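Final report, Chapter 2: Outcomes

The project's central promise was a pipeline that accepts a single protein chain and returns its three-dimensional structure in a standardized token representation, suitable for archiving and comparison. That pipeline is now operational. To close this chapter, we reproduce one record exactly as it appears in the project archive, with the input sequence first and the structure output second.
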Amino acid sequence: MPEVEPALGAGPLLLIAAAGVALLLFLIMKLKLHAFLALVLVSLLVALAARVPLADVVGTLTTGFGSTLASVALLVGLGAMLGRLLEFSGGAQVLADSLVRRFGEQRAPLALGVAALLFGFPIFFDAGLVVFLPIVFTVARRLGGSLLTYGLPVAGAFAVMHAFVPPHPGPVAAAELVGADIGLVLVFGLLIGLPTWYLGGYRFGLWAGRRYDIAVPDILSAGGRTGPDAAGAPDTPGQGTAPAPAAVPPAPGGAVAGTAPAVAAPSGGGDRPTSGTAGPPAFGTVLALLLLPLLLIFLNTGLSTLATGGAVDEETWFVRTGQLLGATPIALLITVLVASYVLGKHRGSSGAEVESVVNSALGPVCAIILITGAGGMFGGVLRASGIGVALADVLGDIGLPVIVAAFVIAVLLRVAQGSATVALTTTAGLIAPVIAATDGVSTADRALIVIAIAGGATVLSHVNDSGFWLVSRFFQMDEKTTLKTWTVMETLLGTIGFVLAFVLSLFL
């Protein structure tokens, strides 16, 4: 990134930053401008207002954008491919059925939640929830009780994994922007995310199920294909029971965009190929594929930690090879290649079928990748203009720890505009230069700050969040009940995650 000497004092720079965030919210919320376009436009205007030299403006924008996408695009794309392969092969059903048998019907909500945690490692929140809904509805009908008893632990599991754990775009983008180690973010994301889900997702789901008797709807029993697009917020939200989501019509001939059409069903459900394809994969196969990238990444993190402590020589062939194989992009690449064979060709699918399946995963993540890259652009402008240093000075003067400031900023942005991705990337962009200008911020601190930002970007999901309407419509709950259940659960998840991250930061 071009070295730019700040041309303004701390006061004007902070006013420019505040005006930039306010303009960003106005463009997204009032003018309904796409978040990617809004972030790019605001980044340009902030650079000009902060008097970044005209010759350096474009370089500052593109450097911030490109450096973020260098890791984000790889991880999000590969993670989406892995999730699509598992979804297409029937891995979600296998996980849920096997765990319900092992846990027993009395603990079916726990079994479904654990299955969602495992399946949620590579798959996004909306796609994962839509894939799991038929399973949740079937179990709820068979065992009885409120839908919330089974549905909230599952929705909470996907929400936690999506917010806290790489390779999901939020934590990946935040880690890249603040300079955190992805392996440590993964470790802390799991250490914090699992108890957060147990308390805020599973236990709260059981309580909500006893308090609110929500019947299992019939929206998925008519054979229609449903998907996240069906859950968009209505133009005029009304009172009472929320309307059923509309079925998403199948693509002509079951085709997906790509070089091998008419093979894979669109993401989120639908028909699967039957000719020449074996049944669903075994439980052990699905579990092994989910654990493979984790083990490889942990290998890298463990070897790097041992090398830093002097226990092993970092220059040896074994350590360097282990670090290479455990680098997150390489670990996910290896896993996708293995999954393509094990879940594809090994089960009788042709190369064209497998190619079409992985290709169908890329379209839905394009907007997310571009938004996170634009968030990196915004962060690059804040660093180059000197706004980050000015913000660090203010936080130092009032004595607010960086991790608390990161959480508060993320909460404000989340409540104001609804998108967790925008809240994550904008907060990380704002706080990254503060971290750089603050002494004593360790590698562990940076990873925990990422978790704190993710917690802030999770709380208080309400009517400006697409996830709110996804749950409201599929669970057939009115807005008031959704606020009392889904919104409260999201707030618990985000708050508990932040508290655990803050406590850990005091000891590490």
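Archive annotation: The radius of gyration is 23 Å.
This record, like all others produced under the grant, will remain available to the consortium after the project formally closes.
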